[in-house]
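Task: complex structure prediction.
Instruction: return structure tokens for all chains below.
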Amino acid sequence: METNGINKYAKYALVVLLSVALILFTQQIKLLKNPDAAPISSMTIWGLLTLWLFSVIGIIISELAKKQPIGFIKNFPVLGWVSITSLVLCLMSDTFVKAISAVDFLSITTPILTFAGISVVDRLADLRKTSWKVAIVAVFVFIGIYVGSATLSQIGLMISGQ
Amino acid sequence: MKFNFILLLIFALLVITAAEMIGFQSIPLGPISINLLPLVFAILISMVLGFGIFRKGIVKKIYSEKNVTFASKYLIFIMLPLMARYGADVAPKLQEILSIGWIFLIQEFGHLGTILLGLPVAIFLGLRREAIGSTLGLGREGELAYISEKYTLDSDEGRGVLSLYIIGTIFGAVFFSIVAPVLLHFGYRVEALAMASGMGSGSMMTAASSSLAATIPDKAKTIIAYASASQLLSSFIGTFVMVFCAVPLQTFMYKLLVRGKGDKSWKQTA
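Output:
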């Protein structure tokens, strides 16, 4: 069931719409649990629509980039394109920043990780194929990259006197 | 719309509700506290219910092949609003970020920590060619592509990187959401930890930075902005750091570490 052309974009746009709808739902649940959480205002709705719009623009740019020959641009991830699109448009108008900021940050993350969990269930079986040795190595690899970067950042911040 | 797909949506709403109702939990362990965010509960609930033993009746329909494929195929698109949100977080702080831009740049070389720390451990455990694949980097798409191109995935190197990819996909987010705030106790400044969070994996960055933001809410805006700026930088120069720094460093260290031990041991296990 390969979709192409306009159909493909419509599908992507719908999935992103589903995502922003789930964010709204999450923010509402947060409010039920804690009435002091970030309120849902008309700004929140505008913010969600802005997030949807920026995502769709990013998708279109990413698809166009795939059609041109420069490898680095061709392979640049759609996640990066959306961030750049949003960054540029937010620098152009503060209104976007205000609208998006009305969307609670942590409410965006819960739905994503829900789907991340569902997406990996069939990989759980693959875990058996990985050796326990690589699992131990993974812990050191994860700590290595994080502590490595954090140490360099810390030194940098100290040098710059921040 | 298919019945199973509607079930998936209802299930997602239920998982979100459960995760949010559990809410932010802080578990004190001596001087250190472990912070668990709703996002951690969300991934744990949706993952654990997918275990074979729970996949009966309606749960089996929720985790139907089509639904799981939908989740993995479109996960990136579900993440896009988060990426769009990052633009709005970085924009107001762009001046500040650019003024210390060089720090963002040098911390990218901290990614070599995967080799500096991971490779000796791997060699010590008796891994040989597999160690090449599993310590080159965080084991995300970039490393996967590089290793599969150079060695194919059906090689020891390929199996190494694939294993790391699987482990990272399953445990990465939970791991970093716990480890990131713990490092605050080791004297790291939250700004440094925020910059380090942008490692090239969207879910791990999100987990690390939101966990930091929940621990120090006063600096939440700075944390999210630094982490996402660093993430964006990683997606720009990550490949260059890997090809021009990580690969030569790894080759050098590998030769150094296995010298004397010979290549015998890996041939026996291979």
